[in-house]
Specification:
The complex is a heterodimer of chains A (about 220) and B (about 500). Chain A has about 220 residues and is α/β, with parallel strands linked by helices. Chain A has nine helices and five strands. Chain A has a five-stranded parallel sheet with strand order 2-1-3-4-5, with helices on both faces. The model of chain A has no long low-confidence stretch (mean pLDDT about 90). The radius of gyration of chain B is 24 Å and the shape is globular. The longest helix of chain B is centred in the middle third of the chain and has 22 residues. Classes of the chains: A alpha/beta (about 220), B alpha/beta (about 500). The structure holds cobalamin. The site of cobalamin (B12) has 28 residues of chain A, from helix 5, strand 3, helix 7, strand 4 and helix 9.
Chain lengths: ~220, ~500
């Protein structure tokens, strides 16, 4: 039993690095199709009695390896995203077990603000945060301020991410922060996108993030 | 084997026009014919029915059309060039537009890049800048150039890039030294010209010791037989005759200069270029049937302020594109020309020169493109850093010209599109990974920055590559070579 669970943990680790959500997925070299992915492996591990905590620990370790590979130039953004997706697939399986044991992941509400349809940058941020173990609630694009505030309150999220790529829509970010504060919500607000600057973020009381790694830094500093 | 990139060739001429040029070249070879300063060539042509008239310093050879046509038929379409490592072999097929790039020239000058700090008078801010230094090339440079090129993935063959001007290099030992310096530092095919025909057998024997039971020759030769217009030079013609007698592969190159030693017009240039190369090929086949030859097309236009060569001239590329097509007309592999920067330094001018020629000559389908790496100031300067830049850019061109694979990709892509449409964020990134990790796509330009930053990054890359070792010739073979030949001790 111990042996089997160790083997599973190892396979989960390996498949997070390979960026494989499930058995239909290919790895970064185009291979491994048909072999179990993170989803199937996590399921099996849980059934076999492996503790969710142990699985999360293994996933975090794997993501650290992925991060290192990115730093050394062996991995690129598509690899990071695929690995994050694999983590996310594993987390979906873990979720019910976590809530039943009382453990939970930090919630992060993210959206592209009203009037803005750009979402590539936001998606990268959302994915990598998922990969880092956050429960990311992605509201999509063109999201009105009220909807964002409502979700943050309902979910009791402590972290909010806003994306705006247009100078015109950037102003909406200020509105969101204002409304949050008016409702007495003191969630930390991260902002990013081509239009946004450090000074604008400071002006509205948010944290500017240059990219997804900046976002990871900002949430780590808690 | 280095397969090269099979292209759909860009061609300027119709079949009928190729035939017209062919006929024009034949008629040039009959009248005015070739002026030969080499006696043995004259005797060979005389024995084969050419009309000879003697002048005080030279002979005029009027070559009958039939003799040229008959001889050219003997030139093989497939030329095999070996290498110390079998994966580096080249099989050049003159009928197939499969492109490969290599180095070339015998540059006198090496361009070094030093880094110096400068302080802005206005802001007081200090910044590092690359500073160029020019010096004469040595045998050590040739060793290092071969070493660098061994590590550059897009260099398909190595032609000595540096003229070795050390004090202890003499006419007697230059050939063995340049071949050894090259062969010891790269496992790719090595080609060079001959300095002293009397050393040909030494060079061949040395190469055979190195290649062992390898069937294909790991070396081949270049001879620029003609001096334009239409003259057989005494020594290089002798080189060709001797190389052909030994059946070694040889590029027969001609380098007519449009506007000075050849007509500037495309038609006249092409007829003369072709005549000069055909004269050499005919001679090689008369010496020994089936001598493996490359159609050495090195035409260019001159600049009008000083009649120096102008590789960046639009006409230079046009002539070269035509030269490649002409070679294919005969089914003989083309040794073609691309990648020379006219400027003395890396920069905007050099990049434009190089890009236009690299791209268009590759598009034309030349089997063997020489001069492609590191050359500046015409062919006079070699820069290690420029060679690294050229390697990246040629890699991009090779990638761009890769054969399409629509059939095999299509089904896969449809599946992918449907799968992605079912996801929340609709991104194809995960499917890009296999190409990324197979090295099929360049993830981003590796030397990003302004001109100065780029050069500093390339300089660092050069240092990295030169400190990464290459597989030298095994010790016991080296020992034998050092016993038998006059190879300088210090390049051991
Ligand atoms: C791709 C693109 C589009 C695509 C969007 C596709 C998609 N699915 O998103 C399309 C074609 C649809 C598009 C449309 C338009 N676009 Co557009 N677009 C771009 C472009 C070229 C790239 C954006 C991008 O994806 N970059 C790559 C990602 C990875 O980077 P990123 O978004 O910056 O995200 C990173 C960081 O900023 C940060 N980040 C981003 N968001 C967040 C959020 C959080 C919480 C955190 C922590 C971090 C973070 O992390 C990310 C990851 O590293 C930009 C140019 C630019 N310089 O940005 C123009 C640009 C943004 N677009 C522009 C314009 C004008 C438009 C249009 C109005 C064009 C038109 N006339 O129709 C429309 C607007 C539609 C709308 N209502 O939103 C202008 C905006 C100028 C301005 N006024 O401010 C830009 C700047 C181009 C330009 N110079 O003209 N666009």
């Amino acid at each position: 039993m111990v042996k089997i669970s160790n083997e599973l943990i190892e396979q989960i680790n390996e498949n997070v690095i390979k960026g494989r959500r499930h058995k239909e997925d290919e790895d970064f070299e185009g291979g491994s199709v048909g072999e179990p992915g993170v989803e199937e492996l996590v399921e099996e591990a849980l059934k076999g009695g492996v503790k969710p905590k142990e699985i999360i620990g293994c996933i975090n370790e794997a993501m650290e390896v992925v991060g290192k590979k990115y730093e050394t130039g062996e991995f690129f953004i598509p690899d990071m995203m695929a690995s994050a997706e694999a983590v996310s697939a594993g987390m979906d399986v873990l979720e019910p077990y976590l809530s039943s044991t009382g453990e939970s992941m930090d919630k992060f509400v993210i959206a592209t603000v009203e009037g803005d349809l750009h979402d590539i940058g936001k998606n990268i941020v959302a994915l990598l945060l998922k990969g880092a173990g956050f429960n990311v609630i992605d509201l999509g694009t063109n999201v009105p301020a009220d909807k964002i505030v409502e979700t943050v309150r309902a979910e009791d999220a402590k972290l909010v991410g806003l994306s705006a790529l247009l100078t015109t829509t950037m102003r909406r970010m200020g509105e969101v922060v204002e409304k949050l504060r008016a409702e007495g919500i003191d969630a930390k607000v991260l902002v990013g996108g081509a239009a946004v600057s450090v000074s604008y973020a400071a002006e509205i009381g948010a944290i500017y993030c240059k990219d997804a790694f900046g976002a990871l830094e900002a949430v780590k500093n808690d | 084997m280095r397969e090269g990139i099979l292209v759909k060739p860009y061609e300027r001429l119709e079949q009928e026009q190729l035939e017209r040029i062919h006929e024009a070249s034949l008629s040039i070879l009959r009248d005015p014919g070739i002026l030969s300063y080499n006696k043995e060539a004259v005797e060979i042509f005389d024995d084969n029915g050419a009309e000879i008239s003697a002048h005080t310093e030279y002979w005029r050879i009027s070559i009958p059309e039939g003799l040229v046509e008959e001889s050219v038929k003997h030139a093989p379409s497939v030329v095999q060039l070996g290498a110390r490592e079998r994966e580096n072999r080249l099989i050049l097929d003159g009928r197939e537009p499969r492109v490969r790039f290599g180095t070339g020239s015998e540059a006198n000058i090496i361009l070094d890049i030093a880094v110096e700090d400068f302080v802005s008078e206005e802001t007081g801010i200090k910044r590092s800048f690359p500073v160029f230094q020019r010096r004469r090339g040595t045998i050590q440079d040739l060793c290092q150039a071969a070493h660098l090129c061994e590590h550059l993935p897009n260099v398909d063959f190595f032609i000595r890039t540096v003229n070795i001007q050390d004090e202890d290099i003499t006419e007697g030992n230059k050939d063995v030294n340049k071949f050894f310096a090259s062969l010891n530092n790269t496992k790719k095919h090595v080609m060079a010209g001959l300095t002293n025909v009397e050393k040909l057998d030494d060079v061949i024997r040395m190469a055979e010791i190195i290649s062992g039971d390898n069937n294909e020759p790991v070396i081949s030769f270049i001879t620029c037989v003609t001096k334009s217009p239409l003259q057989f030079v005494e020594d290089t013609t002798q080189n060709l005759i001797e190389i052909a007698k030994r059946g070694y592969p040889v590029s027969i190159s001609a380098s007519p200069q449009g506007g000075s030693t050849a007509p500037l017009q495309e038609a006249g240039m092409l007829a003369q270029l072709n005549a000069e190369i055909l004269a050499g090929i005919t001679l090689a086949q008369l010496v020994r049937k089936k001598t493996p030859v490359l159609y050495g097309s090195v035409p260019l236009r001159v600049r009008m302020d000083n009649l120096d060569n102008m590789y960046g001239a639009p006409e230079t590329n046009r002539y070269n594109i035509d030269g490649v097509q002409m070679a294919r007309f005969y089914g003989i592999p083309c040794y073609s020309t691309a990648g020379i920067g006219d400027s003395r330094f890396p920069g905007i001018e050099a990049s434009v020169n190089k890009l236009l020629s690299h791209l268009f000559i590759a598009l034309s389908g030349a089997q063997y493109i020489h001069y492609a790496f590191g050359l500046l100031e015409g062919t006079n300067t070699f820069s290690f850093e420029q060679a690294i830049l050229d390697d990246v850019h040629i890699g991009m061109i090779k990638s761009m010209l890769k054969e399409q694979r629509i059939e095999e990709e299509l089904q896969d892509s449809l599946t992918m599109i449907r799968e992605v449409m079912n996801t929340s964020h609709k991104m194809f990134t995960r499917y890009a990974r296999r190409y990324l990790h197979a090295g099929d796509v360049i993830p981003f330009y590796p030397f990003e920055g302004d001109a100065n930053e780029t050069l500093l990054k390339v300089k660092a890359r050069n240092e990295e590559l030169l400190s990464s070792p290459v597989d030298e010739i095994p010790e016991e073979i080296k020992k034998r070579i050092f016993q038998e030949f006059d190879v300088l001790e210090r390049i051991k």
